Amino acid sequence: MTRPLAYITADFTGDELEAKAAATKYCRAVYEAGYSPICPFLFQPLFIKAKKPQEYKDGREMANELLRRSRILVVCGEAETDIVLEDIALAKHLRIASTTLEGILTIDRKQSKRK
Q1: Do 55 and 48 touch, CB atoms closer than 8 A?
Q2: Tell me: the pLDDT tens digits for 56-92?
Q3: Cα-flanking dihedrals φ and ψ of residue 38, to 5°?
Q4: In this structure, are residues 30 and 101 in contact, taking their beta carbons and an 8 Å threshold?
Q5: Burial tier of 23 (Cβ tally within 10 Å: 0-12, 13-18, 19+)
Q6: Do residues 91 and 73 lie in contact, with contact meaning Cβ atoms separated by under 8 Å?
Q7: Which pLDDT value is given to residue 112?
Q8: Residue 6 region, left (φ>0) first, then alpha (ψ -120 to 50), else beta?
């Protein structure tokens, strides 16, 4: 089975450990719903130094490229930061479907009932 790519966006500001735990939880839920989750927040800090303006810009460009390749944008959490709003706007511009984590889980439950 080929899993479509699902780009994960959320407010990942605040406590770093809590944000990583939330991102991991979101990715797991999206994976269980049948998608391949893509979450730059989890891996880009391993090689991008976001405090450097050029590297921050490069990181956003890489993230945008991953969103372009995704089938769906999954907006997680309650808060909408500038990055979340930028991701939503790009997905809308590219005509990539957007939903919330709850929306993905609802779709998954409906598909499970049909099987």
Answers
A1: yes
A2: 999 999 999 999 999 999 999 988 899 999 999 999 9
A3: -120, 120
A4: yes
A5: buried
A6: yes
A7: 55
A8: beta
| pLDDT at 80 (0 to 100) | 86
Please name each of the domains of the chain with its CATH number.
5-9+19-114 (3.40.50)
Q: List Cβ neighbours of 82 (8 Å cut-off, separation of 6 or more).
A: none
In terms of pTM, does the model score above 0.85?
yes
Judge whether 70 and 7 are in contact, CB under 8 Å. Answer: yes
Helix (H, G, I), strand (E, B) or coil at 73: strand
Per-residue pLDDT tens digits for 4-18: 999 999 999 889 999
Task: Give me the residues paired with residue 73 across strands.
Answer: 7, 98
Asked if residue 79 lies in contact with residue 5, where contact means CB atoms within 8 angstroms, the answer is: no
Whether 31 and 86 have beta carbons less than 8 Å apart is answered as no
